[in-house]
Automatic annotation (TrEMBL):
Record gene name: rihC
Transmembrane segments: none
Keywords linked to the UniProt accession: Glycosidase, Hydrolase
Sequence ranges assigned to domain Inosine/uridine-preferring nucleoside hydrolase in this UniProt record: 5-284
Family annotation (PANTHER family): INOSINE-URIDINE PREFERRING NUCLEOSIDE HYDROLASE (PTHR12304), NON-SPECIFIC RIBONUCLEOSIDE HYDROLASE RIHC (PTHR12304:SF15)
Organism expressing this protein natively: Staphylococcus saccharolyticus
An annotated GO BP: purine nucleoside catabolic process
EC number: 3.2.-.-
Database matches in InterPro entries: Inosine/uridine_hydrolase_dom, IUNH, Ribo_hydro-like
CDD domains, A to Z: nuc_hydro_IU_UC_XIUA (cd02651)
Name the UniProt record assigns to this protein: Ribonucleoside hydrolase RihC
Superkingdom of origin organism: Bacteria
Length: 302
């Protein structure tokens, strides 16, 4: 049986990997892609989502969402992903006519309340759209099966010493989502740090298919931490986890977002000893199965 999902995203090179697998895998029914300001500005993240839709000749609707955080100043990750957000591969130009005019939050509401079954939201960018959705239309909660979040960390950050980028971009939105009462799974920095994509592994993508060559070229321009060792492909682990959760170590925790700290704003405060956990935290892979899951999924792509 297929898993109906919505992808809320700010493409982004690692977003491109997650979207590629999701659009092509028979286990997923991608109902919609909503875009958000994050790795680059909303115009570029939306254009990148449209490029991927066109690359895969997909019929999935793309909706443009929030152009700025709820309260925070805009930050971006262009030094990591390139000026376009997906530097490294020459996609054909896309047309604005491919973009659906309804704002992402309205589209999310309409899709959810009219769905015959609960839908999983895969949130791989800042959580602005999801927070606005839950605050404006609380009735949608009964139509959401769970939210898989790429964000946060149980320890150190990657944009400040303690804050992960997606949460730091809009910590107030993250606090809304983490306290929504919805079933949540946090796929944070811990996982990708323990499941590096080595250069030999990335190089092997070229030989798989056209999608593999596209991702290989994008990854040549992806400047994640420890770049001399390999790349941390954060967002793709949301999809790999959904494909085979048994391949990962998960613990329950209460996760709160630091909103006021001068040096700690955007940090995810993770309490594994709480009697009232609000989140499942994916900590690490079991062995190297994640590579096999990735490659077998990549083979489903064009």
């Amino acid at each position: 049986m297929q898993i109906p999902i919505i992808i809320d995203t700010d493409p982004g090179i690692d977003d491109a990997a997650a979207i590629s697998l999701a659009l092509c895998h028979s286990k997923f029914d991608v109902k919609m892609i909503s875009t958000v300001n994050g790795n680059v500005g909303i115009e570029k993240t939306t254009a990148n989502a449209l490029k991927l839709k066109q690359f895969f000749n997909s019929n999935v609707q793309v909706h443009r969402g929030a152009s700025k955080p709820l309260l925070n100043q805009i930050v971006d990750a262009a030094p990591v992903h390139g000026e376009s957000g997906m530097d490294g591969y020459q996609f054909p130009p896309v047309s604005e006519s491919d973009l659906t005019s309804v704002h992402a939050v309205e589209a999310l509401k309409n899709l959810l309340i009219n769905s015959e079954e609960p839908i999983t939201i895969v949130a791989i960018g800042p959580l602005t759209n999801i927070a606005i959705l839950l605050s404006s239309y609380p009735e949608v909660q009964n139509h959401i099966k769970e939210v898989i979040i790429m964000g946060g960390s149980t320890g150190r950050g990657n944009v400040t010493p303690l804050a992960e980028f997606n949460i730091y971009c809009d910590p107030e939105a993250a606090q809304v989502v983490f306290n929504s009462g919805l079933p949540l799974t946090m796929v944070g920095l811990d996982l990708a740090s323990k499941a590096m994509f080595t250069y030999d592994f990335v190089k092997s993508f070229k030989e798989v298919n056209e999608t593999g060559r596209m991702l290989y070229n994008l990854f040549q321009h992806y400047r994640s931490e420890d770049f001399d060792i390999g790349v941390k492909v954060y967002d793709v682990f949301t999809i790999l986890y959904l494909l085979n959760p048994q391949s990962f170590i998960v613990k329950e925790a209460d996760v709160q977002i630091e909103l006021d700290g001068k040096y700690t704003k955007g940090a995810t405060v993770v309490n594994f000893n709480s009697q009232y956990p609000n989140c499942s935290v994916v900590l690490s892979p079991i062995g190297s199965e994640f590579k096999d899951i990735f490659l077998s999924s990549l083979k489903n792509c064009k």
